Amino acid sequence: MSHDVTPSTDSPFRSEPTARDQAPQFVLPLVVRIEKAAPPARTDALETAARAVLVLLADERSVGDGEWAEVVRDWQDARIRKVVRRARGAEWRRAEALPGITVTGKSAEVRVFPPVPLDGWPKELARLQVSGTDLDDPEPPAAADPAAPVLWLSPDLDMSAGKAMAQAGHGAQLAWWELPAEERTAWRDAGFPLAVRTAAPGRWAELTTSGLPLVRDAGFTEIAPGSCTVVADHPALR
User: Distance (Å, rounded) from C-alpha 203 to C-alpha 223?
Assistant: First the structure.
């Protein structure tokens, strides 16, 4: 699923044209492994995708003079689009052979790749399906640890798992952008613990006016432009 926050007026999620639209547009590819016999749990897939985005942002190849640094900067200077595709079997093995990072959850595997131009996908990824990422939780997820970062999903939107994975990634990225360096280091060193949960309606109203990082989707797929999808509730940002 594709979509595209900073708290500034020139947000990578704004639906109105901004300076970000004048920059070359890139997309962050994420591939989730969905084997027919053993699909991952939905919440675990969302959490693993969010961690995958953070792992890529913190990777030494993505910063300074790293081999991915220039394209990561170019991507973050434009709209920070993410596209989630699915793979299984030989498709997954071909995706694993490309430069990237595989992040594993309890049941989910997500591979994140350095950003690519919107029209410049590697053929091994371009042929993968975007649709078909519908996943379920076998049992309701446990309550989130209030002392840990939580990415709260809107209770008002019905998103496919792929769309929600990308939105969770957006929320994690916004939290990363806003954290001081020492808090980033602590989060990275702890392995990027986080939870993804759907907020209760009353709680959602509080969250969206709390000043915490808020994702407003650009509306390229599934939902209306400007929809509030995720609030990134990191303890260091409260």
Answer: 21
Q: Helix 181-189 and helix 42-58: axis angle, to 10°?
A: 130
- Is 87 in contact with 130 (CB distance < 8 Å)? no
- Residue of 168, 169, 172, 159 whose CA lies nearest to 221: 159
The pair of three-digit structure tokens given for residue 92, joined into one six-digit string: 């997954």
Contacts of 202 (CB under 8 A, 6+ apart): none
Element (H, E) at 91: helix 90-96
- In single-letter form, the type of residue at position 212 comes to L
Cα radius of gyration rounded to whole Å, the chain: 16
Q: Under 8 Å CB-to-CB from 70, ≥6 apart: which residues?
A: none
CB contact at 8 A, 134 and 84: no
Q: Are 201 and 189 in contact (CB under 8 A)?
A: no
Helix (H, G, I), strand (E, B) or coil at 216: strand
Residue with tokens 């053929």: 123
Count of CB atoms situated within 10 Å of the CB of 119: 8
Measured distance between the N- and C-terminal CA atoms of the chain, rounded to whole angstroms: 30
Amino acid identity of residue 132, one-letter, is G
CB neighbour class for 36 (10 Å; exposed up to 12, middle 13-18, buried from 19): exposed
Q: How far is the C-alpha of 92 from the C-alpha of 108, rounded, in Å?
A: 13
Query: Is the pLDDT score of 83 beyond 60?
Result: yes
Which tens digits make up the pLDDT trace of 118-148? Answer: 999 999 999 999 887 789 999 999 999 989 9
